[in-house]
Write a structure and sequence with these properties.
Layout lengths: L15 H9 L13 H37 L5 H7 L3 E7 L6 H17 L2 E7 L3 E4 L15 H14 L5 E7 L18 E7 L10 E6 L8 E7 L6 E7 L2 E7 L5 E6 L5 E8 L10 E7 L4 E7 L10 H10 L10 E6 L49 H4 L17 E5 L7 H12 L3 E5 L10 H5 L6 E4 L5 E2 L1 E4 L22 E2 L2 E4 L4 E7 L4 E6 L9 E4 L16 H13 L9 E3 L10 E4 L5 E4 L13 H8 L29 H27 L7
Organism: Luteolibacter soli
Pfam families: BatA
InterPro entries: Aerotolerance_reg_N (IPR024163), Class_I_gatase-like (IPR029062), Double_TM_dom (IPR011933)
């Protein structure tokens, strides 16, 4: 038993003091001849015997108290060295339970585990897939068809298990199929010095595996046909791939070396569930048949309100935004948006003038078709700037919408492009009500903007209150942007491009004020893109862009990032990223116990359990390559001798709990008992013994 301060043991010599006191205070008796006191002598002998016992007990208690006090200051402890040397070597056996382990490979792994158990002491067995399961015996070891095998998680679990038990002198034996696709690019951890790892490779009987690795819906939106693409493993021979689903049975012959198979058909309904399979004739049948569940959805309807269409159809912001949102994002797919351009939401199609707008300063202006533009000029003449749009006070009065007004209910987002003339209060209220129900709102302004044009929107809380048109002509770049926001997250400067490469005209100064946050700022310090802060998770997003979407201020529509920027903004506004066209795919493993297939959930959606495509690659590496990839310590090398850390005085420092708190508790108990015995003895000395007559 090591001590932190062994010099305090010399203090045990103080235990001689109670002995000296005891010997010096021994009572001496003198004999006197008296009368017949025979009965008194008998009582005195009994009392004397009890007192001697109590004195000896007091002596022992006081000696023990002094010794415990000295030992407590010496601070004994149980060191890690003693604990480690006293404990048996711990062994953990990890068995690969992934889908790439066949029945014959599982039998070989079991035999290897038995040999490892016979060589080592205390053994803990576990089976790993995407998680780790402790096994009570080897009879419980059963690989799961289609399950993934996470070697990194298994090795990490073994270290956590050893750490939780306080064991450092241990051995880990990992047995499995070391697939080349499972190797990390860099070693994930540094191993402790006293843990040895032994890797035992189980080679597959055949390296040929036919598998359907993935199924993808190429046409997520309703079209003439639904197109589903299946990706299969490469082969040097022709194969037949089959799609079967609810009355549909399609077959494709895949030439040698081809990995993609396209199925085009008209589905009987919007949702299709089925299987894509091929005849593998290999040792891994679980990945020869892959379930899928796909569904068509309607594109997100977007209402574009163009405030200044221009003299030709190719000048207005609505035109450029519409083209960007309708651009297809995939070779076989359609755009997730269905934009519709209008020039107002109040349905005055009879050429009449709103009562509040009949002033001599602001004559009514009509679109060529006779539709009244509440947001700006005449499409035929190109006029209608903010300066000649009339009084904001009169135009923004509360005028009821006519029966022919645009129904906002179907639209997932509204874009107000270049508002120039004042909006009626009821129009702003209708938009605000639609936003409160979850629709998104996007507003972009240009140099025709006036405060009167957006006064109703500002009163409804949909536009910043402090906006000034500076008319600046300087071109600037984005200095800061919120990369965590869903509208800007894809522009990471790598594959998604970098918005800082675009030039923007610095023509507005905006004070966001309370309830607004800045998403992007120009290098001059002025905000470019803002968003309204909302505490209601069901309400829609509101964004304001201080820049037009036309070529009037620059070549923004011709930039390669214009289309992805527009789609990213409206992805965030419509929350399109939350919609799914394919069922969630789960892989068998420690957390997923269902068999391969598709399942109906409680909320009516579908889920798919399919084989992990990573297990389709059965090419393996040898033990040396596996150990090098994970930086595993050499199992054949003897472990280093245990060391105990030292403090600055050269004393051994304990790594486990010290004993002094328990010694202090025992010392307190001894002192309590000593006090009780001493009190009892004093009471006996003061009280004369009764005489037995």
């Amino acid at each position: 038993m090591p001590l932190l301060h062994p010099a305090f043991l010399f203090a045990m010599a103080v235990a001689a003091i109670p002995v000296i006191i005891h010997l010096s205070q021994r009572r001496k008796f003198k004999e006197f001849d008296v009368g017949t006191l025979r009965f008194l002598q008998i009582a005195e002998k009994k009392r004397h015997r009890r007192l001697r016992i109590e004195e000896l007990l007091l002596l022992m208690l006081r000696i023990a108290a002094v010794a415990l006090l000295a030992l407590m200051f010496a601070r004994p402890f149980l060191s890690d060295r003693e604990k480690t040397e006293a404990a048996q070597e711990k062994t953990i056996i990890l068995l690969d339970g992934s889908g790439s382990v066949t029945a014959s490979m599982a039998e070989e792994a079991t035999n290897a585990a038995k040999k490892a158990m016979s060589k080592h002491g205390a053994v803990t067995m576990a089976q790993f897939t995407d998680g780790v399961q402790v096994l009570s015996s080897l009879d419980d070891y059963h690989p799961l068809a289609g399950a993934s095998g996470d070697f990194n998680k298994a090795l990490g679990w073994s270290l956590d298990h050893l750490r939780s038990e306080g064991v450092e002198n241990a051995r880990v034996v990992i047995i499995g199929h070391f697939a080349s696709s499972a190797l990390p690019s860099a070693p994930p951890r540094v191993w402790p010095p006293r843990v040895q790892v032994e890797a035992i490779a189980i080679q597959p009987p055949d390296l040929h595996n036919e598998a359907v690795k993935a199924v993808e819906l190429l046409t997520p939106f309703a079209a003439a046909n639904m197109e589903i693409e299946a990706r299969v493993t490469s082969s040097n021979k022709s194969r037949e791939v089959t799609l079967s689903s609810e009355g549909i049975n399609l077959k494709q012959t895949v030439p040698p070396g081809v990995e993609r198979v396209l199925f085009s058909f008209r589905p009987p309904r919007e949702e299709v569930r089925g299987f894509i399979s091929l005849e593998g004739k290999d040792q891994w049948p679980a990945d020869d048949r892959r379930p899928f569940a796909m569904q068509w959805v309607e594109p997100e309807p977007v209402l574009i309100l163009d405030g200044f269409p221009g003299s030709t159809p190719f000048e207005g912001q609505g035109y450029f935004l519409q083209k960007a949102l309708t651009a297809s994002g995939a070779a076989h797919g359609l755009s997730p948006f269905r934009p519709e351009v209008k020039y107002g939401i109040d349905g005055r199609d009879d050429g009449s003038t709103p009562a509040a707008a009949t002033t001599e300063e602001a004559p009514p202006q009509s679109i060529g078709s006779g539709f009244k533009s509440l947001f700006g000029g005449n499409k035929g003449s190109g006029t209608g700037t903010g300066a000649g749009a009339g009084s904001g006070a009169s135009a923004a009065e509360d005028v009821p919408l006519k029966p022919g007004a645009v129904d906002l209910t179907p639209f997932s987002a509204i874009a107000i492009c270049g508002p120039t003339t004042p909006m009626h209060a009821n129009e702003a209220k209708a938009i605000a009500s639609h936003v409160a129900k979850g629709a998104g709102l996007f507003i972009c302004i240009d140099e025709r903007w006036t405060k009167e044009a957006t006064a109703a929107l500002a009163n409804a809380g949909l536009f910043p209150a402090s906006v000034e048109l500076t008319g600046g002509m300087q071109q600037r770049r984005i200095a800061t942007s919120d990369r965590k926001h869903p509208a800007l997250a894809s522009f990471d400067g790598k594959d998604g491009g970098d918005l800082r490469q675009l030039l923007w005209r610095d023509a507005f100064t905006i004070q966001p004020g309370e309830g607004w946050k800045i998403l992007a700022t120009l290098d001059g310090g002025h905000p470019l893109l803002l968003e309204k802060i909302s505490n209601d998770p069901t309400a829609g997003r509101v964004m304001v862009l201080a820049h037009p979407l036309t070529r009037e201020w620059g070549d923004l529509p011709r930039e390669p990032m214009f289309v992805p920027l527009a789609k990213s903004l409206f992805n965030a506004l419509t929350r399109y990223e939350a919609r799914q066209h394919s069922a969630n795919v789960h892989y068998p493993g420690a957390r997923e116990t269902r068999e391969i297939g598709y399942y109906q959930t409680a909320n009516g959606t579908a889920e798919v359990v399919a084989a992990d495509p990573a297990e389709a690659n059965v090419a393996a590496v040898d033990t040396a390559a596996f150990c090098k990839a994970y930086a595993l310590p050499d199992a054949s090398a003897p472990p280093p001798a245990p060391t105990v850390a030292a403090n600055h005085q050269g004393e051994e420092r304990p790594k486990t709990g010290e004993w002094w708190p328990w010694l202090a508790l025992v010392l307190l108990s001894l002192l309590t008992l000593e006090c009780a015995v001493a009190t009892r003895k004093s009471a006996r000395l003061e009280t004369p013994a009764p005489v037995d007559a």
